[in-house]
């Protein structure tokens, strides 16, 4: 395992973010001010939120380019969901962390989009109306793989690591079932995660991962490549074929 993939290193990053004496109650991002509650992932301590906004084309909200409905999984402080709502998307945001649900609601009110942004306390899709369908589903995932038997010390740790990739497996299985006929299910992943393991899980779930965009940023002293992946139903394999496909369109590289 590469050091950047260490779940212990990622958990330490999360602990530092929580205990930083300069952790702000209000922060600046994307030209706006945002509330930040305790035990919520802090965009000021990671480039991932900015990268996600760039991947989605939400750095400057553009009503003409936005899908009509948007679901964000793991909304955190709500920056991405609020930016989507500012683009006139009908937006739903979910998070397993109740503090994040409250935080996103606060920022929806702060920026005047509470009428267009519904926030739910939910483990992935569990709290959604079973009939709800979306033009775009997005999750900037907790991409670092923790051991399957890892026991979370706090809800905040769930923003940093995924024990046994159980949450990733559920997302890959369920997201495409929540789409409109022309919708897309997107996943923000990076080199801190185990791309080979994710690809194997996708195959087991009958899914393919298509790389739509890539971006490398310096995180501390580590250059980290980020991916925007589209999750799609797998194509049928020719009779007699076997093994994992790691060719173009997959996050795994030779």
Tell me what you see in this structure.
The protein is of the alpha/beta class. The chain has one domain: Vaccinia Virus protein VP39 (Rossmann fold, 3-Layer(aba) Sandwich), CATH 3.40.50.150. The chain contains six helices and eleven strands. It has helices spanning 7-19, 48-56, 79-86, 98-110, 166-174, 195-204, and strands spanning 26-29, 32-35, 69-73, 90-95, 117-121, 134-140, 144-146, 161-163, 179-190, 207-219, 222-233. The strands form three sheets. Strands 5-4-3-6-9-11-10 form a seven-stranded mixed beta sheet, sandwiched between helices. Strands 1-2 form a two-stranded antiparallel ribbon. A two-stranded parallel sheet has the order 7-8. A hairpin with a 2-residue loop joins strand 1 (26-29) and strand 2. The radius of gyration is 18 Å and the shape is globular. The two termini are 16 Å apart.
Compile the SSE list and pairings.
Elements: H1 7-19, E1 26-29, E2 32-35, H2 48-56, E3 69-73, H3 79-86, E4 90-95, H4 98-110, E5 117-121, E6 134-140, E7 144-146, E8 161-163, H5 166-174, E9 179-190, H6 195-204, E10 207-219, E11 222-233
Parallel strand pairs: 3-4, 3-6, 4-5, 6-9, 7-8
Antiparallel strand pairs: 1-2, 9-11, 10-11
SS class: alpha/beta
User: Uncertain regions: pLDDT < 50 for 5+ in a row?
Assistant: 238-254
Main sheet summary: 7 strands, mixed
* Helix fraction bin: 10-25%
Give the strand tally: 11
CATH topology: Rossmann fold
The proportion of residues in beta strands is 25-35%
How widely separated are the two ends?
A: 16 Å
Shape: globular
């Amino acid at each position: 395992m590469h050091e950047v993939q260490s779940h212990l290193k990622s958990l330490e990053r999360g602990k530092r973010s929580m205990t930083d004496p300069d952790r702000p109650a209000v922060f600046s991002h994307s030209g706006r001010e945002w509330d930040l509650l305790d035990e919520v992932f802090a965009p000021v301590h990671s480039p991932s939120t900015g990268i996600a906004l760039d991947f989605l084309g939400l750095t400057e909200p553009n009503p003409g380019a936005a899908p009509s409905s948007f679901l964000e999984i793991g909304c955190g402080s709500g920056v991405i969901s609020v930016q989507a709502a500012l683009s006139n998307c009908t937006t739903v945001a979910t998070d397993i962390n109740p503090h994040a649900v409250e935080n996103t609601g606060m920022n929806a009110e702060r920026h005047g989009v509470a009428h267009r942004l519904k926030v739910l306390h939910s483990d992935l899709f569990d709290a959604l109306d079973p009939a709800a369908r979306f033009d775009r589903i997005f999750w900037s995932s907790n991409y670092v793989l923790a051991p399957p038997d890892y026991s979370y010390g706090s809800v905040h740790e769930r923003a940093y690591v995924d024990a046994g990739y159980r949450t990733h497996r559920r997302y890959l299985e369920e997201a495409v079932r929540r789409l409109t006929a022309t919708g897309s299910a997107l996943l923000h992943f990076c080199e801190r995660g185990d791309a080979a393991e994710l690809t194997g899980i996708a195959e087991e779930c009958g899914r393919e991962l298509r790389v739509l965009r890539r971006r490398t940023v310096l995180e501390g002293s580590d250059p980290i490549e980020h991916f925007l992946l589209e999750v799609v139903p797998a194509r049928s394999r020719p009779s007699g074929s076997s093994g994992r496909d790691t060719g173009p369109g997959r996050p795994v590289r030779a």
